[in-house]
Amino acid sequence: MKFLCVGCDKQMTFEERQLPGDGTLAATFKCPKCGRVVAMLTNPMETQLVSSLGVEIGGRTVPEQPFETVRKMVATGRDDAFTESTSPNGAPSWSPDAQERLARVPNFVRGMVKRIYADYAKERGIAEITPAVMDTARAELGLEGM
Amino acid sequence: MSPIRTYHELTDADRSGLPEQIGAQRKRVAQRLAGVGRVIAVMSGKGGVGKSYVTAHLARALARSKQAVGVLDADLNGPTIPRLLEIDHAPLPTSPNGIEPARGADGVRCISMGMLIEDGAPLAFKGPTAESFVWRGAMEAAALRELLGDVAWGTLDVLLLDLPPGMQRYVELCDILGAPPAVLTVTIPTPESRDAVRRAMRAAVDRGSRLLGIIENMTGQGFDGSAGDDLAREFAVPVLARIPWHPTPDTWDGLGARV
Q: Domain containing B217: what range?
């Protein structure tokens, strides 16, 4: 989908995405000429349809992970479906609080989530992942629901 | 009111880049399958004719003939390939490069939704339950795309795709692959099976798939009819094998030599 500022006849550009957690999605678009901002609001079914395509409105913030859609969206995934490769040297450590938080993520998706946070920290030279680092990563990368 | 420009007339770069994201997904599948010699869909318009059984034993026969073989169980809702390939569950090794396939009988590599979901549980997705038919098909297609593109198959001579009954998965497969796969058709001898399989074969021809031939399963007793010969004549393809109720390894090896 695209948005057109009819008055200016200009294609509006993506500004921001929000996932409030109730299955809905809000994305804002801005006219580059007059500055008018509009919000696209989708209901849970429409949000789900976008998710099922494996695409991210606003663009990808992290590379697509193996089985990303399956691991995020399957409700009946088995706990022991995957085993993650061992972390390479230089991987950041996890504080006890961060480990506890990570442990609350279902096994089926935990390995993928752990890797995303670890890559985030490594790219930024962060030696230890704490809950605060996880919050920052979630906000920066748009990892709602992780 | 003056005419509003259409979707295709708006060509400015967009940060979402949804078409580019879709393009990247397709490229990922293409790159992953670049090391696969042949992709063959095993299909039938009819349920219960033994597609998975034939697929598993054909894969084993090909592997015994020193070919590197993979099986992708595309029956997401009723996966049976792991059992047929005698695969005991073990966690699948995962890395940023992809998911390692399991190894089954005779060294056949395999991926199946049956390895990913809880024993005895249906394939269920998170999401709104009302009108789930709107998005469920798209979700299953996404899962199929990931089974194709995210498994580190390595170099394969043959990748067999075991499709569920009906045509939907075949159509999704054509879209994901970007080109129609070669097709092996399985039927039983009955006229009911022939009529259903005919529709599937017609759809495959319309999509541009090359029909490799027909495998007539469960022959010899119980089922009357000549579906294999009828379809072979109609579509000008060979009957590659007639599989009796109690086939021997020679039966499968003979089929493997003809595929």
A: 36-258
What ipTM does this complex have? Answer: 0.90
Q: Which one of B4, B15, B134 makes the best mutation probe of the A interface by having the most chain A beta carbons within 10 Å?
A: B15
A59 contacts chain B (CB < 8 A): yes
Q: What is the CATH number of the domain that holds B201?
A: 3.40.50.300
Decide if A86 touches B, using CB distance below 8 A. Answer: no
Say whether pLDDT at A46 is over 60: yes
Report the first-to-last Cα separation within chain B, whole angstroms: 63
CB contact under 8 A, B24 and A64: yes
Q: How many beta-carbon contacts under 8 Å exist across A and B?
A: 150
If asked whether residues A75 and A86 sit together in one domain, one would say yes
> pTM here?
0.91
Q: What is the pLDDT of residues B216-236, one digit of tens each?
A: 999 998 899 999 999 999 999
B21: number of Cβ within 10 Å: 17
How do strand B109-112 and strand B102-103 relate by DSSP bridges?
A: antiparallel
H-state helical runs in chain A: 44-52, 68-73, 96-103, 107-123, 131-141
Residues 6+ apart with CB under 8 A from B12: A11, A13
What domain range includes position A140? 62-146
Decide if A48 and B127 are in contact by the 8 Å CB cutoff: yes
d(CA A58, CA A15): 8
Residues A38 and A70 in one domain: no
Give the one of B121, B130, B142 whose C-beta lies nearest to A52's C-beta.
B142
Give the helix ranges, DSSP H, for B150-190: 168-177
Number of domains in chain A: 2
Is A123 an interface residue toward B (CB < 8 Å)? Answer: no
